[in-house]
Amino acid sequence: GEAGKQKTVKSFAERFGLRGAVVSASPLAKGIGRSLGMSIPEFSGGSGDTNTNLREKTIAALDALQKNDFVVLHILGADVASHDKKPVQKKIFLEKMDTEVFRRAMEYIKLKETILVVAGNHGSSPYSGKHESCNIPFVVFGKDIEANGPEKFDEITCVNGPLIEAGHFMEEIYKFL
């Protein structure tokens, strides 16, 4: 499609046979979710930057998981820190995500029944402030998925994989369902 021209797309449910939700403070992410017929749960304190309320956002995503087959928890803080050329702030935010998002999620989700995917949507450098063209490292775990990649999930370790082109991400994730 071209900028400024409406494009008809199948809903998320039509394309994948799943009920979906998007938990985000970003108007763009919420708009994409709405255009795909996904629910958009509300939560307090969402700011789309490093000050976003990760606790409330995570709780909203965990609640949405009770009513949906697929939930996107969209977090922008690390990307914002990169664009602002603040590598230390990016590191601190990622550590905060580990504590307030991933540890909380691991307390509540049942890994035998759930697939958890952690990924970025693009690379961004906290030194140049620009997006980078690269494949996206990701991790998929739960539902008895066997390990097949690096032992750590960080930018240095994941340079060699597993990697996937962003345009094919959902199709790859769907294989695990």
Word description of this protein:
The chain has 177 residues and is α+β, with helices and mostly antiparallel strands. 36% of the residues lie in helices and 15% in strands. It has helices at residues 12-16, 27-35, 54-67, 77-83, 87-108, 169-174; strands spanning 20-23, 70-73, 115-119, 123-124, 131-132, 136-142, 163-164. It has a three-stranded antiparallel sheet with strand order 3-6-7. The chain has a two-stranded parallel ribbon with strand order 1-2. A two-stranded antiparallel ribbon has the order 4-5. α3 packs parallel to α5 (87-108) and α4 (77-83) runs antiparallel to α5. The longest helix has 22 residues, at 87-108. The protein is globular and about 40 Å long.
What are the main properties of this structure?
alpha+beta; two-stranded parallel ribbon; 177 residues; 6 helices; 36% helix; three-stranded antiparallel beta sheet; single chain
Concise summary:
The protein has about 180 residues and is an alpha+beta fold. It contains six helices and seven strands; from the N terminus they run αβααβααβββββα. The strands form three sheets. The protein has a three-stranded antiparallel sheet with strand order 3-6-7. Strands 1-2 form a two-stranded parallel ribbon. Strands 4-5 form a two-stranded antiparallel ribbon.
Strand ordering within the main sheet: 3-6-7
Low-confidence parts lasting 5 or more residues at pLDDT below 50? none
**Chain-averaged pLDDT:** 84
The percent range for helix content is 25-40%
- The helix/strand series, from N terminus to C terminus, equals HEHHEHHEEEEEH
Shape, per Cα inertia axes: globular
Question: What's the N-to-C terminus distance?
Answer: 29 Å
Largest sheet: 3 strands, antiparallel
- Give me the secondary-structure category: alpha+beta
Radius of gyration: 16 Å
Number of contiguous helices: 6
The number of strands is 7
Strand content: 5-15%
